[in-house]
Amino acid sequence: MVHQTLAKKYSVHIPKVPYYKYQPASVIENKNAAMYWDRQIIADRPINAKKSDIVVLNWQNKPIGIINVINPLIQNIQTAYSNKIANFKLIRRRFMEPCDTYT
Question: Residue 25 burial by CB count (10 A; 0-12/13-18/19+): exposed, middle or buried?
Fold first, then answer.
């Protein structure tokens, strides 16, 4: 459902099927945005977590959205959340800072 909703938001064409039958394409794009589903993030430095569920590149105002979906048991929710934050902290930093700060 998240992938379908984001595709609709950015006017990316996807087939109209019920959410429970929907199989996201690994790459979909148009003039507004590109969406990557379950694809490895390529970086110039090694990173722990290189694969996210959804990456959205907005061509209009240039933000990058990295979305990871977790479905933990209720007793593990804090641990799962903490692990996701720790794993993607380096990716966020890499996208947010200028390249010349990495030497």
Answer: middle
- In whole angstroms, give the CA distance from residue 54 to residue 51: 9
Which residue range(s) make up the domain with 61?
A: 1-96
User: How far is Cα 56 from Cα 11, in angstroms, rounded to an integer?
Assistant: 12
What does residue 31 show for φ and ψ, rounded to 5 degrees?
Answer: -70, -20
Closest Cα to residue 43, out of 86, 92, 7, 85? 92
Residue 103 domain-assigned?
no
Domains: count for the chain = 1
- CA 37 to chain CA mean position, Å: 7
What pLDDT digit, counting tens, does each position of 25-71 carry? 888 888 888 888 887 766 666 655 566 778 888 888 777 777 777 77
